Amino acid sequence: MSKQWWKESVIYQIYPRSFADSNGDGIGDLKGIISKLDYLEWLGIDVIWLSPVYDSPNDDNGYDIRDYYGIMKEFGTMDDWELMLSEVHKRGMKLIMDLVINHSSDECEWFVKSASSKTSPYRDYYIWRPGNGGQEPNNWESHFGGSAWKYHEETDEYFLHLFSKKQPDFNWENEALRSELYKMMTWWLDKGIDGFRMDVINMISKAEGLPDASEVRDTPYQPAGDLFLNGPRVHEYIKEMNEQVLSKYDVMTVGETPGVTPDDAALFTGEDRNELNMVFQFDHMDVDSGPGGKWDIQPWTLSELRRILDGWQLGLEGRGWNSLYLNNHDQPRMVSRFGDDKEYRVNSAKMLATLLHTLQGTPYIYQGEEIGMTNVEFDSIDDYRDIETLNMYKEATEERGISHDEVMRRIYIKGRDNARTPMQWNPTKHAGFTTGEPWLAVNQNYEEINVEEAQTDKNSVLHYYKKLIALRKENPIMIYGAYRTLNENKEAVYSYEREWEGKKLLVMLNFTAIPQAYKVPPKWIKSGCELLISNEAIHPSLEDGTIELSPYEARVYVMK
Ligand code: TEU
Ligand code: CA
To answer: Which top CATH class is 109-160?
Structure first.
């Protein structure tokens, strides 16, 4: 593998709680993951990104770490984890762990000591401030609703939590805290892992003095992203982390960085920056959000999605590397959001997969995406588990007078549990995920949508993913080719070229449920070309100059 093996890899994200349950307690676990490694190897996966498996009270399903050196008991033991790692490596795959170091759980021993007294040597590991005339220290809103501050009676101060009340933010200005975190990272790297996905890593440096948010909406607390995203010392901290830890290992890092532009991303991922290898940007994940944020749902347009993705493809060309994703454990299922999860589920899932595997960057497959799993609609709010959803439901219905039906409509479209229903392995009860009662109900379409069915159906989404992944390994142009956008019928068709060492690819994706005319660029007629992959079986030749793309049809040609 080249030094930059992460550029040539396809990465698969496992959300362990929902992946595979080996002991019938209804919760996915490490032994369950081990039982599915042959499947991932068969698919052609190179790297597994494992969402947090550290000891946690699960206020935010593991993104609230209580013991950074221990495994959550529901998931198994450290021996199980060691076995999993060796089984991953035995199959020639790599493992990156999800690292949450912007905040910990309030049950983490560091926080318990920090909260024990104002004079604790750990006090400054977290962000404590006195109240402001009986009010919170500033007007910041938590991502999970309400104030970003919680009052701590025992020491008569507030602590900052940008997420849940049980996720206190670390104070990265404290050097001892940073050393603790680097020591912990080294401990995991010495176990042989192949890197980290770093949770909200661009939130670790907050604005000097923690001033009030200037943008004031008609809500009690205000979004303050400009005051805690890409803060004044964020690059200093990450460079220090790289110098003291990461640079000593052949590992990959991908930072989760809400609110970054391509210019910001180039600062985090530039090869001469010695910070991170890649970042997850969110511009395309906000394409259907209005000024009120994710729950202010707006229709999205292909021209806006293209503008965003073009911007990232061209913006990072030659100075960074894109992470390519349309799904993860925080986002609704891509076939429901950007495709058609009813009449054209299979074709639109394949079309979206073609997009992700023919842009420049590293593709990330989220568990279930490869079989076209869809969003879910539970009848009752009591069927939901995600803290973000439950807090929003309570605040919207009880404090803002929004109707139950309207709030449920928003949850159906944007709720995070859409992505967290158990992986659908086969058509037996609970989709073969568990022999017990699942922690979150299985999507009722599992009899039709499951891995077993997909493996037997040669035309399934799954076999299409397997072919796309294999093509990337055989055609470096899909990895390294320069990206050039094309504007033919651009409101309905996303088309672009890739160019590398004299070779050319032409990609055309019909993003609609109706046939679309597409005028082939003349140079492709003259030169002649052959079809590399398509989600349709028959294709009029390109000679005619104008072709018709069927609903959600995807085609990729290579120039002769
Ligand atoms: O998510 C950070 C983040 O930006 C989320 O607020 C995301 O935008 C939101 O969930 C979309 O609805 C990371 C983790 O991926 C997420 O699961 C955690 O809840 C969060 O950090 C706190 O650790
Ligand atoms: Ca289990």
So the answer is: alpha beta
